[in-house]
Amino acid sequence: MGKTGYIGAVIVVAACIMILSEVVFLRDTAYYQPIRWTGIILFFAGIVMVPEYKAKRKPGKEK
């Protein structure tokens, strides 16, 4: 996996951790909605970045 693929995967994992932790710990605070939307945006941005790597790969050029 290339650099873009790894970054996308890290963003997806960070977003999942953010979303799950805010549901468990921040449910009754004023920070719930902003952190929730940040996590959702990061999640979808990471999902978009992972397939971008596959489109750049050229068959037969693997190490």
Describe the protein's topology.
Layout (H helix, E strand, L loop, with lengths): L2 H23 L6 H25 L7
Radius of gyration: 15 Å
Number of DSSP helical runs: 2
Tally of strands: 0
Task: Quote the distance from N terminus to C terminus.
Answer: 11 Å
Percentage of residues in DSSP E strands = under 5%
Question: Mean of residue pLDDT?
Answer: 75
Order of helices and strands: HH
Q: Low-confidence spans: pLDDT under 50, at least 5 residues?
A: none
Q: State the secondary-structure class.
A: mainly alpha
Helix content: over 70%
Domain module tally: 1
Shape: elongated
Described by strand count, sense and barrel closure, the largest sheet is: none
Can you describe what's shown?
The protein starts with a helix and ends in a 7-residue tail after the last helix. Helix 1 packs antiparallel against helix 2 (32-56). It is built from two helices and no strands. With 63 residues, it is mainly alpha-helical. It has one domain. 76% of the residues lie in helices and 0% in strands.
Quick take:
With 63 residues, the chain is mainly alpha-helical. Helix content is 76%, strand content 0%. The protein contains 2 helices and no strands.
Question: Which properties best describe this structure?
Answer:
mainly alpha; transmembrane helix; lipoprotein; 63 residues
